[in-house]
Amino acid sequence: DQQVKQNSPSLSVQEGRISILNCDYTNSMFDYFLWYKKYPAEGPTFLISISSIKDKNEDGRFTVFLNKSAKHLSLHIVPSQPGDSAVYFCAARRIGSARQLTFGSGTQLTVLP
Amino acid sequence: KAGVTQTPRYLIKTRGQQVTLSCSPISGHRSVSWYQQTPGQGLQFLFEYFSETQRNKGNFPGRFSGRQFSNSRSEMNVSTLELGDSALYLCASGEGQGDTEAFFGQGTRLTVV
User: Fold this and answer.
1) Rounded Cα distance, A54 and A73, in Å
2) Per-residue confidence at B1, pLDDT binned at 50, 70, 90?
3) Which residues pair with A23 in a beta bridge?
4) In terms of Cα–Cα distance, which of A68, A41, A30, A2 is closest to B107?
C-alpha cells in the first residue's frame, strides 16, 4: 500500500528550464511534506518542506506547491542546473507521528547542459 | 557543525549473524531516526528515538532493535540476519521534539551473504 507515490521514475530537463517533480498521496492524516535530494552513495539531503496549512513555500530556486483537495504536491526548480541532477524523494509525515516519514519511490532528475 | 556520522560505511555479514550499526547525530540534536533503503521497498522507517526513548516504530520484525544513549548517539541492532536485510541503513537526526526536518547521514551499506 503506497501512501506516497511518485509516478515518474525519471525526468530530463534542459539546463535553465523549469523542472517539475510531482508527488501524490493517499493518507488524509499527512500534515507535513518534505522534499529530499539524493546523490549516489550519499544520504538524502533536505531541500524544502511545507505544512498542510499552506499551499506554497519558496526557498531560492525551489518552490513546493500543495493541493490538499487533490492530495498532490509538486516541486519546481527554476532555473534548473546540471548540479541538480539527482534522485528526488517526496516524503510525508502523519499527524502526531514526529519524524516517522513515509517516502515516495523517487524521481531521477537529469539536467542536460 | 559536523553532520550526521554513521559507522561503519560498509559491512558484510553472514546469514544468521547479528550486526550493530552506529549513528552520531548533529551536535545538539536529540532525535535520531533510522530508515532502511532497498531497491524493492524504497526508504522505510524503522524507528525514532528522542532523549533515549523510542517514540515511533515502523513495521519491521523484532529482530530489528535500537537504542539511544544519553549523548544522543544511537545504535541499531539486527539479529539473525537474513539475505533480505541487505540494504542501505540511513540514520537521520533532528533538533527538537516538534519540528520535522530530518538530516541524514551517508548510511551504512549492509550486505548479507
Assistant:
1) 11
2) low
3) A73
4) A41
Neighbours of B109 (CB within 10 A): 16
- The alpha carbon of residue B97 is apart from the nearest alpha carbon of chain A, in Å, by 7
Across the interface, whether the CB atoms of B106 and A43 are under 8 A apart is answered yes
Tell me phi and psi for residue B14, to 5 degrees.
Answer: -100, 150
Task: Give the rounded distance of the alpha carbon of B98 from its chain centre.
Answer: 20
| Residue-wise pLDDT tens digits, A60-71 | 999 999 999 999
How many Å apart are CA B19 and CA A110, to the nearest integer?
36
pLDDT digits (tens, 9 = 90+) for A2-57: 899 999 999 999 999 999 999 999 999 999 999 999 998 789 999 999 999 999 99
Q: How far apart are CA B73 and CA A51, in angstroms?
A: 29
Q: Which chain A residues are closer than 8 Å to B94 by Cβ?
A: 99
For B85, the 3-state DSSP assignment is helix
Contact criterion met (CB < 8 Å) for B4 and A32: no
State the pLDDT at residue A97.
73
Q: Which of B43, B45, B49, B95 to mutate to test the interface with A (most CBs of A within 10 A)?
A: B43
Contact B82, B15 (CB under 8 A): yes
User: Quick check: B7 pLDDT over 90?
Assistant: yes
